[in-house]
Design a protein that fits this description.
This protein is an alpha+beta fold and 294 residues long. It has 2 domains: 151 residues, Poly(a)-polymerase, middle domain (Orthogonal Bundle); 130 residues, Beta Polymerase, domain 2 (2-Layer Sandwich), CATH 3.30.460. It is built from 11 helices and 9 strands. Strands 1, 2, 3, 4, 5, 6 and 7 form a 7-stranded mixed sheet that branches. α6 packs across α7, α8 packs across α9 and α9 packs antiparallel against α10. The chain is globular, with a radius of gyration of 20 Å. The chain starts with a helix and ends in a 17-residue tail after the last helix.
């Protein structure tokens, strides 16, 4: 098996099972119906996140439910965010994120069931219903203007979808704290102009080198709004950790670049290879075994 064959097999193993897709569809419908019950037809509800971008992986996935109110809405964006948060809290356990609200449901045994859904409250900028203001929870009184449909378009057409999926898998298996949107922009920035994006082996090595050598001063702008520098709140410490993790991976594969076992090691893939090698394995539970954390 070549390294590229191994990486393709790894990606194939990260396709969601039909049960997972069915559950996600059911949760999505339930949440939309709840939002409609609370807010009627006022907000526009759309779907985004990794599913819309084509970058989902089985071990870490989500669906964004965009809940945007019309520009004529007389509420401040912070009030909209807090109102949606309050209403969702009547039924779900809600965890605030940067500009989204992650929801979980508490079952009869008081356990939290992860819906893999983030609700993104916002308010449209104009009647075109593309650009919107989002509240930034970490910065009191702050808001950003963006276009999530633009994000979907840029990322899904970047030619980097498989590499982004590999990056997400490497991130989760190595316990790296890195926002998905930042990771997506990093991959795209690293490989802009590349004619060999389909060569996963060479391209992923190039991405690791980029993280090791350039992450300390990289500047990433929102493709929908260049005034929104999404890397501004990225601390030097976080950048240093990612650079160090990339160096560790490169140290493993550099000496034996064409050895699939070395690549198996950087993705924390167990040598017994039952976990990934058999793509027919169906995982029905909400929690996956994580042998790389053992």
């Amino acid at each position: 098996m070549t390294v590229n064959e191994f990486l393709q097999k790894l990606l194939k193993s990260q396709a969601l099972t039909q049960q997972m897709l069915d559950d996600l569809s059911s949760y999505r419908q339930e949440v939309e119906e709840f939002l409609r019950e609370k807010f009627g037809e006022e907000p526009t509800i759309r779907y985004g996140g990794s599913k819309a971008k084509g970058t989902m992986i089985k071990e870490n996935y989500d669906l964004d439910i965009v809940c945007y109110f019309p520009r004529e809405c007389d509420r401040d964006i912070k009030d909209i965010y807090n109102d949606v948060h309050k209403k969702l809290s009547e039924k779900y356990f809600v965890t605030p994120k940067t500009s989204a609200l992650r929801i979980q449901k508490v079952d009869n045994n008081k356990a939290k069931l992860d819906y893999h859904i983030d609700v993104v409250p916002g308010r449209f900028v104009d009647d075109k219903k593309r650009e919107a203001f989002l509240y930034v929870a970490q910065r009191e009184g702050s808001r950003i203007k963006t276009d999530l449909e633009k994000h979907i378009d840029v990322i899904s057409k970047s030619g980097c979808v498989d590499l982004i999926r590999l990056g997400k898998l490497w991130r989760v298996r190595n316990n790296i704290s890195l926002r998905t949107f930042l990771l997506e922009l990093l991959v795209i920035d690293c490989l802009k102009g590349s004619r060999s994006k389909d060569d996963l082996q060479s391209s992923f090595k190039q991405f690791l080198e980029y993280l090791r050598d350039s992450i300390s001063d990289v500047r990433l702008e929102d493709p929908a709004n260049t005034n929104n520098v999404v890397s501004d709140n990225w601390s030097d410490g976080e950048r240093e950790i990612i650079s160090s993790k990339a160096k560790e991976a490169l140290d493993i594969i550099d000496s034996e670049f064409d050895d699939p076992e070395k690549w198996r090691e950087i993705f924390k893939e167990p040598k017994a290879n039952k976990y990934i090698a058999d793509s027919s394995i169906v995982v029905t539970g909400e929690r996956l075994s994580k042998p790389w954390c053992a």
